[in-house]
Amino acid sequence: MPSFKNSYTIKQLKKMGLNDRQVKAVQYVKDNTSITNLVYQKINVTGKTTATEDIQFLVDRKILKQAGSKDAAANTSCMNNWPVIGR
């Protein structure tokens, strides 16, 4: 598994356009190496649609990249040394 790029601060993530939920998810992935849509929903107390849209935003910004399934929220892989979502 690729290593996490620790150089990003919360301030930098915010400048990249991430919302609080996405920052929280990135921090979760940093600590746990992966995250699923369901976990995203639980840690952010949000629904599936919002989780999917937020994760798609990370894919669109090339923080994560989709792997395999078209459901980006369920199966994305790392890009730019970010850990995997959905493994």
Structural class: mainly alpha
If helices are DSSP runs of H or I spanning 4 or more residues, what is the number of helices? Answer: 4
Shape: globular
Give the overall pLDDT as a whole number: 74
**Strand ordering within the main sheet:** 1-2
Second rung of CATH, namely the architecture: Orthogonal Bundle
Q: What is the highest CATH level, the class?
A: Mainly Alpha
Strand fraction equals 5-15%
CATH topology (level 3) name: Arc Repressor Mutant, subunit A
Total beta-strand segments: 2
What string, H for helix and E for strand, traces the elements in order?
A: HHHHEE
Query: What summary fits the major beta sheet?
Result: 2 strands, antiparallel
Uncertain spans: 1-6, 75-87
Q: How many structural units, i.e. domains?
A: 1
Computed Rg: 11 Å
As a percent range, the share of helical residues equals: 40-55%
**End-to-end span in angstroms?**
11 Å
How would you sum up this structure, described in words?
The chain has four helices and two strands, in the order H-H-H-H-E-E. The N terminus and C terminus are likely disordered. The chain has a single domain, classed as Arc Repressor Mutant, subunit A. The longest helix is centred in the first third of the chain and has 13 residues. With 87 residues, the protein is mainly alpha-helical. The N and C termini lie close together (11 Å).
